[in-house]
Structures
1.
Amino acid sequence: MSLLILAGSSRQASLNGKLQKRIAEVAERDGRACYVYPAAELDAPIYNGDYEDENGVPSNIQKLATAISEATKIVIVTPEYNSSVPPLLKNAIDWTTRLEQNPWVGKNVLLAGASPGRIGAMRAMTHLMVIMAAIKSYVAPMFLSCAQASDDTIASFDAEQIKGFLKQGD
Ligand code: FNR
């Protein structure tokens, strides 16, 4: 099985980028092949039907869709902006659903998130769950939430919980 790990912040010191790598570390130790997808590769013009009519779907989004299609399982690590999903991630997801084939259909997806706050991106994950259900992926009934996130809490974050998700269907 191959695990695609997406993160929704391209900020250099991103806590979610660090959580993305921490999850990969645990999954690789569990013998899983991981694709830690660079968040900068999600960057696309804000979706606009006129842009799409003139230019089609951006090539980096087509590559993202291929990575989604090829993955056996997917983890999405989302930051929380004003209690919801940040635009980088939402926009990339919206674009992927403009392709002839929606790559998310039937995909097993686990949601994760880190924030320095006490709720640890839970509200963003709740919104993301609704979005993922709308695009027909199967969302695991568990969130990997890293609250009061910092370099230290992420380094010691109990990502072992991910092993149950990885085992399903083995
Ligand atoms: C935030 N942040 C934030 N945190 C949180 O726990 N709940 C929230 O609703 C928000 N809202 C919010 C809005 C905006 C516009 C910004 C820029 C930030 C703080 C956020 O969790 C923090 O900046 C994280 O460090 C962002 O994730 P990365 O970039 O570190 O991965």
2.
Amino acid sequence: RAGGVFVAVDIGASSGRVILGRVGSDGPSLQIVHRFPNGAVEVDGTLRWDVRELFTQVLAGLRLASDSLEPGERIASVGVDTWAVDYGLLDNDGVLTSLPFSHRDIRSGSTVDGVHSLMPFERLYEITGLQFLPFNTVYQLAAETSLDHHRALLVPDLLCFWLTGRRASEATNASTTGLVDARTGDWAPEILTRLGLPADLFPPLIQPGQRLGLLLPEVARSTGLPTGTSIVAVGSHDTASAVVAVPATVEKFAYISSGTWSLVGVELDYPVLTPASRSANFTNERGIDGAIRYLRNVGGLWLLQECLRSWTADGLAPQLESLLTEAAARPADGPRIDADSSTFIPPGNMPDRIRDAIKATGAAAPTEPAGVVRCILDSLADAYARTVRQAVELSGAEVDVVHIVGGGSQNTLLCQLTADATGLPVVAGPVEATALGNIMVQARAAGLLGDSASLTDIRAAVARTADTTRYTPHGPGTAPKTSPIARNRRV
Ligand code: ADP
Ligand code: LRH
């Protein structure tokens, strides 16, 4: 089969990249052509995403992608993914009214009681299967003063609108809003009506693999790409794309997409909407081909990023690599915190907040940065193990291996601690799983993988070229391989 060249625009909460993906018969290979930092910016005491600057970086990246082509190559299509949940509001003329809020802004949470008084969380969960996070889109929308004469677009859909002039809501990301029915995968009219939201606030859904449109002429001019270049919908929720590219070679696996957030779970072909699942706060987000990403958000490397930011501001010039080496040399029975606690969601003063959380457990708080780092990684590994165990117990899935993908897969200490805590082998990598998933969905849409290529086929292709490291557990750990619930029981 002939090969093809695709572009992934992949923007995480801490950094963005534009990547050329060449997909041949031996699997995909990536060339990172542009990297840029990302992070919420403070505007008048609120936390926002500077999406205009992000769009400028996307255009710069597309220009570099075009310049990086080998003779005879052409870009078949472009796909865009970013973090989930956050959205921009457009006025009647399609103009962005203000910079989108970050889900870490303090307004998140303030509207939860109001929303639940209109619709109890039990009913919301019954319909959407979405875990409770105080910043889910549904709660953020309730904080808007007026939605009259406004339309909303989730962040990747907004970038795609600016690239093509076409508005659509990509389905995997829409599933993180709290407004989509987990069974139908479509907008849930009952929720929109009961919360008084306009039925057409978001545009209709588009599925990953469908063609969204062509680059606008001015975008083509400024990037050097041909006007006929297509934008194809991918799993525009970064986690959905990451899960596509888990290089699993067996059926029974759990995944951890480890970046600013950690997303820990299993893939199912049915949603789990039981009261037990609701109490454990597991989510049923949509993946590619209607798969369910049954997972839970775990606080993630945000805790470490924020500590590094504080220590840098304090003039300590922390180096991640040496901190991790020092942390690895510390004893295994150090203090733990609840990495899932919502107290860690907002930015600022993280080392002190972690020390306070340690003291609240009755343990002595470390004074050295390396001690804090070790506490974060021990706590994350414990949370990963607990979450894998719960996913297995609640869904009936079985797990023989845990895959860690994303930036955190480079953290050898975290990977080994996760193997030890779960008692399961951990396969770490690829680092750029999200971009790979983005590219493979485009490659399949272009017919490169065969019309009937399944997620399993995509993963096998990724596994052929993926850079991975295997970690063996040093003990039995706590995650069972199988569940008391019979496999495949639809719960
Ligand atoms: P996001 O997509 O949310 O922006 P990434 O998947 O890029 O996040 O992961 C970012 C995280 O990866 C960082 O917070 C950092 O902890 C970790 N990371 C990046 N590079 C390394 C490295 N060389 N060694 C260990 N960890 C790393
Ligand atoms: C990870 C992620 C996660 C969401 C959060 C807002 O980047 O998309 O899946 O919960 O950001």
